[in-house]
Batch of 2 targets.
Target 1
Amino acid sequence: MTEQATAGAVRTLTLSKSINEGLRRALTDDDKVVVMGEDIGELGGVFRVTDGLKAEFGPQRVIDTPLAEAGIIGTAVGLAYRGYRPVCEIQFDGFIYPGFDQIVAQVAKLHARTNGDVRMPITIRVPFGGGIGSVEHHSESPEAYFAHTAGLRVVTCSNPQDAYSMLREAIASDDPVLFFEPKRRYWTKGEVDLEHVPDQSMERARVLTSGTDITLVAYGPLVPTALDAAAAASEDGISVEVIDLRSLQPVDFDAVAASVRVTGRLIVTHEAQRFGGMGAEISATITERCFEFLESAPERVTGFDTPYPPAAFEDHFLPDMDRILDAVDRSMGRRNSLSEWRFDG
Amino acid sequence: MTEQATAGAVRTLTLSKSINEGLRRALTDDDKVVVMGEDIGELGGVFRVTDGLKAEFGPQRVIDTPLAEAGIIGTAVGLAYRGYRPVCEIQFDGFIYPGFDQIVAQVAKLHARTNGDVRMPITIRVPFGGGIGSVEHHSESPEAYFAHTAGLRVVTCSNPQDAYSMLREAIASDDPVLFFEPKRRYWTKGEVDLEHVPDQSMERARVLTSGTDITLVAYGPLVPTALDAAAAASEDGISVEVIDLRSLQPVDFDAVAASVRVTGRLIVTHEAQRFGGMGAEISATITERCFEFLESAPERVTGFDTPYPPAAFEDHFLPDMDRILDAVDRSMGRRNSLSEWRFDG
Amino acid sequence: MLLTHSGEYVQLLTPRGERVDAPGFDPWVADIGSAELRSLYEDMLISRRLDTEATALQRQGEIGLWPPLLGQEAAQVGSAHALRQSDFVFGSYRENAVAYCRGVDLTTMISVWRGNANAGWNPYDISMAAPAIIIGAQTLHAVGYAMGCDFDASDDISIAYFGDGATSQGDVNEAMVFAASYAAPVIFFCQNNQYAISEPVGVQATKPIADRAPGFGIPSIRVDGNDVLAVFAATAIAADRARSGNGPTFIEAVTYRMGPHTTSDDPTRYRSDDELAEWRAKDPLDRVERYLTRIGALDDTETARISEHSDTVARELRAAIRALRPPEPLSFFDNVFAEPNRHLARQRSQHEAYLASFDGGELS
Amino acid sequence: MLLTHSGEYVQLLTPRGERVDAPGFDPWVADIGSAELRSLYEDMLISRRLDTEATALQRQGEIGLWPPLLGQEAAQVGSAHALRQSDFVFGSYRENAVAYCRGVDLTTMISVWRGNANAGWNPYDISMAAPAIIIGAQTLHAVGYAMGCDFDASDDISIAYFGDGATSQGDVNEAMVFAASYAAPVIFFCQNNQYAISEPVGVQATKPIADRAPGFGIPSIRVDGNDVLAVFAATAIAADRARSGNGPTFIEAVTYRMGPHTTSDDPTRYRSDDELAEWRAKDPLDRVERYLTRIGALDDTETARISEHSDTVARELRAAIRALRPPEPLSFFDNVFAEPNRHLARQRSQHEAYLASFDGGELS
Ligand SMILES: Cc1ncc(C[n+]2csc(CCOP(=O)(O)OP(=O)(O)O)c2C)c(N)n1
Ligand SMILES: Cc1ncc(C[n+]2csc(CCOP(=O)(O)OP(=O)(O)O)c2C)c(N)n1
Ligand SMILES: [Mg+2]
Ligand SMILES: [Mg+2]
């Protein structure tokens, strides 16, 4: 690939358009790739992520399915048995549960079940997360269910380039990948190198800003929020290292641990409910691996342990810069509103 | 209730028979209680837990259902709308996933969805865990999925008295309860006071042995294993406080924190996969609440992040006394096989 | 067992407003005289008005989303009128005309679409469950409820409303299995409005949807869903069967969603103007108006009265929306559990303390 | 669209071993002369022998569990013989006679029931998927596979085996929706063995199971599942339809599980001796033996040869079990992922280090 080609292939795209281009590229490069889901054909998906693909690749490559998530995943399993690489779209996070059994009992386990004889190179795309003022079931963050399920890879992207590159890597992977798309960032724009070659970097976390006081781990929709918080903290003289986790299963604990050994402090933020969420695992593992380095207890800034609330409440439910900064305070040992809560047990 | 009545009501029962008696009592006391599931009628359930109930209460109270878990949970939701208190049996842990959507999107959320107008007093009984040499899907520990789901209560019992009392309390609760039964302990015997009155203690953890060096948290099938480990450790001069967690959502963090503030050390053990399991949440929360008290990093002794393996491997997969003792060593700061792993990142 | 045969289709009122004979069905509308039919018409007209109004309110930013029922008024109003108030309704998001017929308070209904609540009304106030957004899930609830009616030896019944798309979901099929197995007094009411968002019904089914149920042991009726009399008759037959211990019935009401899937949808991407025009000619209101006019049951006075009534209801809807206040910020913690929950109480208090730490309560 | 009508039931060979005419079906067995029928008989007999042997081995503690197929030999062998080796089979745990017909290696088959593996054989070796224990899940896989055959413009097809109980699961119904929607070249082969563990088929269905499919747009055939010729014919018809682009077919093979659900089950708790006796009289092997004997195709030499063959296979099974070695302890880490996985590699190494810390490797 010449420099010119690279240059020519860099375009400014929205995150959703990057995914569209990633799908187009995967469909072009490998005729075993099929894209399937509800309303993805004629309509181009409710977010237009699959816009134009059916017209370009035809109804056997870009498949409008009946309205049944177990059916989508289950037929994808059969297609994988036959050597296909299905890319399934689940229309919204909250609609993945009817397909849960096929995902955890079939997709996740078939490679192990067959002693490695059968591969499940299935990518399951899921627009996830809140902040779009939508109705029930349209704003959930179910990633922890899948990260807890042995046999699945789980990733999420926070910017257009990652959306494009990680999706291509997910589709190319011989293992099943849950690909969570931060739907409220679909319209975020960024430069995308369409010639970027998948390089097995999907499972690596990325340090976005380096810092020395606190390690702030975020992923998907909260990465920009984390960057804002880091900027605000730095005005206050606190140096925050922001890590975009990218892969949620496996987690790049090496990267997080390396950072915490420098900073001695950890904050994890996600939209999902706190109890048993990704934050718990990251806090527990980093405490195991960095106990002697920790200056204060890892903090979690997350959704609450309620169902995702109606739109009128979502500003309260969703972690924002202020709540992260509040945790920054606690992490630095400054007393604030919540400090006392530590000791009420 | 006179002392005599109490005395007369104390019987030595297996854990499974205790559940049978708990169901019998609930069916007797409240004619809105219905028990439903696959093979629970004529057959009395594959573990004979519902033995005799259909003959005693008839087919409208003890209902053999079609083979469909979503159907079982979904019709239970409708019965709850109508004022019933359904007790659903899922035949084995690994068969709960087809009902996952109805559990997480309906049962868990309906009370919140309706602003408190509709109650979901549904108990979902699930024999769970491994160690019985069975085939795939019959030995899983899916509790973390439900504990992470806002709106559900999740409990498990480790002895016949708790099996009886907690089940009655679960059925009496106006909230949905996932009731996990440690199937490999179904044949454990113990004294059961059948007149024990449900006393809202279900969500309280119980300290089984008090100790000063290490807090060892277990639940369900691993409670006896934890007690064995504590006994072995005490021969080695290490004083272990064993806590039977009982409730997994909510967790009685106050009890665990109180203990850790004394011991300064925490070990959590469960059969479920480690990543994102209950151990992660307990480790993270206790680290938050007891950071200054911790002498060493909380340890987790759990199943591995593989699917539950075929029977030939389950002795390796399942935490046992030796693996707990190994963690006791690390927790006490003695170097052992795994100590070096802390620092490899 | 099919009450109608495959491909057949019951119609009592043609698009031109002619009353045609439908043996077997006619007796079930014998009590519907011109006054009753006018009242059906009135509810359909008001439903349409409410729907148009809500769509407009969404365009004006007063509510976030609205799923129009334009074109489905006969299916919803006709079936709702054939039920008793003590029967229980399990619907999807689109059954707002059914809710209207059951006397829903407009404020509570609209609060959902404003984003203030997930389900506005108290289900026990109008014997109608919270709207189900997970496609098909409510059909199992309806069956369970009906089993409860049966256990209670009550002659109450339940009805499940769902769409053509929903018939593909496992839940809906399991609902039929359970309903048949327990001979539950439930009505499966499928509004086949030809689309599941962008997907034409042919993606879900290669045969008429009414043909599905008989294989489960459930008789089915296929009706012109734009014909309020046919819908009423079919629902009355099904309700009578359920009440008299004959178990479930499946109704396919063949209709058309004349608007977008929701106010977020752009139907021009997947269907033609011609198709829309074809269905507009089968409008469910027009035919009743024509018929009533022809038989002299809709004179100018009546038309004026109904029009005024619909203006009033539309005003009420607007007033309802204006009356909506932002809910108490932390109330989303309150109804997660029915019983006190220490874990959540703690989180709520923490967030309260956090909010209090802002000068002037910046976030609340 | 029903290839058989509701309640009808295709039989070519009566329990007494009489060949009866079955118009429409007879041509499909025209190629089955006495040699071919004897070979079907031989496979059925060996299947039964394997099944009896495995049951005995479970009683002796050599394997942990066995799901007997006693009584279902005609359904499995008859259908398996109507397939090509390049067609793909998706079955449940009970299709061990199908696996035998497809040439499964007995060691790999039995390793599952010994607890050494979750699926013994390599699916691509015998074009037969790993057994599905989650009831009904495999039917969707079969449909997806068939869609793939179609996309490949191959005339390979797939077949899904499942039980009467499975028909209640959402997955099986969704599989029919998808199969119909894409006209997938798949055969739905339901062995209605009258029970789902303890539950008689009446709990799942109030009508013959074959009646379910036509409502989905899938023609169905109901056959005497204890009649190997009828089963063969029905499967051949279905396979031909699939191969020639006519989409899915549903077959209900009416049979009986003469043994327990698995070796852990006690069927006396839920069914009568009389019922068993009634079905014993309809034994799938007896009738073929009677017929072959009558037409002189099963003389003493043949009987002796077949008996010897079955002894050999039984010996092979015992040898296979004795040949099974405990698997390498940590191999359960190895195939979770197809690609290297750092997280799991780390856990494996940790556990290895842990095991090494025991003197003499106590745990390994
Ligand atoms: C389980 C699930 N999957 C997907 C969706 C997204 N979705 C919302 S409405 C809809 C189409 C429903 O079609 P239909 O059942 O015909 O009802 P209609 O909207 O036409 O009234 C879809 C796919 C959902 N709400 N639930
Ligand atoms: C999803 C699921 N639920 C429950 C079970 C437990 N189970 C195993 S076999 C069986 C009965 C299956 O009956 P049927 O489909 O008729 O097949 P058969 O065993 O008769 O061959 C049940 C309930 C299971 N394996 N999977
Ligand atoms: Mg529709
Ligand atoms: Mg069966």
Target 2
Amino acid sequence: MKKILIANRGEIAVRVIRACRDMGIGTVAVYSECDRAALHVRLADEAWPVGPSAPRESYLCIDKIIDVAKQSGADAVHPGYGFLAENEDFAAACRDAGLIFIGPSPEAITLMGSKTAARQAAIKAGVSVVPGTDEPLSDQTSDADVLAVAERIGYPLMLKAVAGGGGKGMRMVAAPADLPGALRAARSEALSAFGDGAVYLERRIMAPRHIEIQLLGDHHGTVLPFVERECSIQRRHQKVVEESPSLAVSTDLRRRMTSAAAAVARGVGYTNAGTIEFLLDADGSFYFLEMNTRLQVEHPITEMVTGVDLVQWQIRIARGEKLTLDAESLLTPKAHAIECRIYAEDPENGFMPSPGRIQGLRVPQGPGVRDDSGAYEGGEVPIFYDPMISKLITWGDDRDHALQRMRRALAEYEVRGIRTTIPFFKWILDDEDFKAGRFDTSFIDRKLGGNGSQLQAIEPAHEDLAALAAAVHVFTRPARRTSDATPPPSRWKDAGRAEALR
Amino acid sequence: MKKILIANRGEIAVRVIRACRDMGIGTVAVYSECDRAALHVRLADEAWPVGPSAPRESYLCIDKIIDVAKQSGADAVHPGYGFLAENEDFAAACRDAGLIFIGPSPEAITLMGSKTAARQAAIKAGVSVVPGTDEPLSDQTSDADVLAVAERIGYPLMLKAVAGGGGKGMRMVAAPADLPGALRAARSEALSAFGDGAVYLERRIMAPRHIEIQLLGDHHGTVLPFVERECSIQRRHQKVVEESPSLAVSTDLRRRMTSAAAAVARGVGYTNAGTIEFLLDADGSFYFLEMNTRLQVEHPITEMVTGVDLVQWQIRIARGEKLTLDAESLLTPKAHAIECRIYAEDPENGFMPSPGRIQGLRVPQGPGVRDDSGAYEGGEVPIFYDPMISKLITWGDDRDHALQRMRRALAEYEVRGIRTTIPFFKWILDDEDFKAGRFDTSFIDRKLGGNGSQLQAIEPAHEDLAALAAAVHVFTRPARRTSDATPPPSRWKDAGRAEALR
Amino acid sequence: MTYEIAVGDRIRTVSVVRKGAVLHVTLDGQTHVVDARRVSESAMSLLVQNGKGEAPVQSIDAAFAARPTAGDFDVYLAGRSLAVQVRQAGTFGRQKKDGAGAHGSGPQRVLAPMPGKIVRVLVKAGDTVKARQGLVVVEAMKMENELRAARDGRVREVQVGEGQSVDAGAVLLVVE
Amino acid sequence: MTYEIAVGDRIRTVSVVRKGAVLHVTLDGQTHVVDARRVSESAMSLLVQNGKGEAPVQSIDAAFAARPTAGDFDVYLAGRSLAVQVRQAGTFGRQKKDGAGAHGSGPQRVLAPMPGKIVRVLVKAGDTVKARQGLVVVEAMKMENELRAARDGRVREVQVGEGQSVDAGAVLLVVE
């Protein structure tokens, strides 16, 4: 493998480029119009345009990307996550074009990509699943029929897009009355996000934890599971904080969950990197939720606790190497790691997206800190894509050490010019229940009570300091308008938000 | 321990502040006039002035620093390295003032601080030392007497300052004729650096490796050694690249060197962090060289291969905790780590110091990279202190992985406005002998042949790219003079250098 | 120099006077000695006199991001970010009178926070709405974002329909 | 626009012409299509046409640091740093004639690279010196730094003595 095309953008494209660098492999970036000056373009060896900013016209255009791969002489393609990462047509198109797709086979993507088929695979492997519909409910299915199915499963239940992922097209339904509305919302979201409005129903497990198992499978029949990731801290069904290992998982439970996960993967002849998500019930029983047939956003915490570079192994597996890792050590955490997903969202205004120009950037440094970012000072966060700009990871001897380092790193982290979720994470890390590990997937929604108002509880002392600092800033500022005293045009959108949500 | 005063500056002060943050301990920085806006001042909870820029009038003023410690209500003092770190009077002054000195006892500093007394301690512990003078040669000793002693030891030999460290006051002497000159130089350097012109002589071991053993000792009689550090890559007897473990050290040799080191430390009842340096002969025999009674610049590579935070343990030991680390795992590297010391020196102009304003800074990020820095964009590198501005550390599964990541990190690293040794490290990492691990302490001097000319061997292709980029920069640059198109005053000193060394 | 500075729910009066090498900053009647150094166009290192001691030693590393309105900043302090509005003394008072400005209470024009698509309109002209009630849902950055009412009121007019694409700052509806 | 650009031992002639959205940069007679974006005042992202292909896809992340002389830069490319001098076409030619400038050959004035103390003077007026021979030792930043002769010559005058403190740029001696 001499040259890899990265069919993605932002921080994950940068992450993959770095892995290629570490292996002496050339890199080809692709970019949409608004990404011409993005970090992944700047760091790659080559960068090719693939069209307008809207994903459908660029990063989701299979033909354009295959075409660039051929023209550039790339011999492999890494899809990152999101965009085409779980698109079986793309994986097949790569194969047909004689390109190595760095991920599972199109067949595996198809199989596990269908939530309902995946449930079948789990059941076949002897792993229990959350009770629910085994057949998809197409968007033609009448409300009445859906209500009938719902009756059998029982309320409260979860309404999920068959093609879903990342919480899109997902709704909790407490009672029959809420079903039609939720159904409409889920279908429209699923349709726009995945081009498929089909949904299915699942019983809602009360107060579950979201625990997932990272897997690597090579082309020689070996599948290895890794120590679990704790991903219960979610907002709108989107993970925002992940850690490894989980306080809720004993060594024995770890054995059972990892072998269950490996069994499912082996059952479908899975290769490359994948993750099996479980719901862990309060009583210690766990249910197969879904399989992500790609690298996960939270892969770095697994890397920090096991010392394994997962992206590098994706590449090694794709070029036919045998998995030579020691199975035992992959289940033995060498540290405790935590990740915070830094989003360009304003936690004090209902997590409204906050695109725009990054006027200033200070990235945390020092021991036990890793920042996988796609941002740079002066760079733009476009409105067209997922608002995650960086993944901040810290690790230490134990959970407390990792959390302390995260607090330190968050205090050093400055992203100026746009609003980010950094203050939100400070707040989570100081929460008594979080510190004690008392949480489930409903943690954030319960704490926030639907809106971010609690976050605004900042001590008056800090307001005084802010007032003092601002006064000194204005008083001592050089007379001439400085570059960042003049707001860049893109900032005006904040005016709208500020007013709308005042 | 509630509040720690850091009696240092720059990157190591920042490193200690971060460790305190990770433990929830308050921090007090001290600063000289030119350091008012230094990073350690910005990151600390409190910052107190201690005088003019010259070290003797600020960072070396024991009274001022003790006074600040008392006024600020600090209950402990961390000396970092350099400045007062190995000054027994300072350690004693702290004790007398009721402050916990985070380091060994004044007695241990005195004993091991004298190169000749340290040699005695090693011999007593049954560890062989390099043949040489057992008594210091004061600066009153006549050249004739020194020559007589030299005859007994034999040439080539090393001339070293009794109070020395960091290669200062050290000279290699090939023949009697060179002795008087070398003696004069070594004494003057030693006098200005340590206020003590006494020197001693040691036989020169040909083509040795510099291998050192990190130790931690608690106040309950436990002394634990760590996997070795390979520090043979030196310039002017200053380490510039360190790695751990060493290719030259087998598991068996590691056992013998670590137990020898621990024996010496136990013999003198050593506490807190310390390092014993050995010369490793080509034939596998090793000689005690000296003990550094402080934290070492290269401590991070040990942290990355063992997962132990050494600064945090210094603090825990100082507050009386027992060493609860697993002795076995400290001798078992979990990764391979390498460190490059980034100096504000111009490798293409005989490593001339290059102080001044940092116009632009891009710090490498991503997996397996750690940057312990005291620099920031817009910050000044003063002329008064050691020119090291940052320590860049990378680690990976094996040596090759760590080196690849270091190449990647160096390629991402930009320090603009001053000259740094970053290009020098790219050159070292691409050297065939270095890659193969074929080197000893003379590696750099041999390769450079006394001057940096080899470094200028840059492919014409890069010169073309540089010319192209510069042309485009000038062609597209906004008409108005931009902040960094106008050189800050401090840059003028480079004009002198450029001309002097043209 | 005296400023009125709005941060959080309170407006503070802050005056700054240069006294030789340091500044004297008076906030709510209490004067602090401040040793201020600009470390970049938009960041400062402040050493502030903390209550008890006389020497300014409390180290505050403050950074600033300009907001669209002159005098409005995000102030960054140790991982916190606070929205601050700096005005000439008396400004806010006047603003209050004519009912505009940050703390005014005039009709609320709900603007599109960014270019996007109107997914749902949840109210119609004439509806009475409560504070924080959802008004319209805009899709952008792959997420559906609900714009809420700032306070109780009545919808005067709705200027967009579902499925319509809107630019940043476009007026969606007005609540009075 | 045409420039003479000195980098390494060679002076290159480079011309830049804007052609719509891209630039045509001609270097040593070969023309490259370049798509250039400024990412900061002192950094650019360049996509350069690489020999074979027609499309400009080779990604060059270039950053610049101004040197004291206008038109002089350090150019940063993937961890390398190259000193570059950009001049109007013809400049270097003229400089050569009057024997000044980067590639001139006039007397060498040895200046103090930074404030420091003269530790040793290794030559005296009238001495003949070889290229790279040590002339004077200055102590600064805790290190002794030897200033060397740029080329063979004769020491015309020594203007400092041992132990003397000097400021940056002070003339220490002159070699002709």
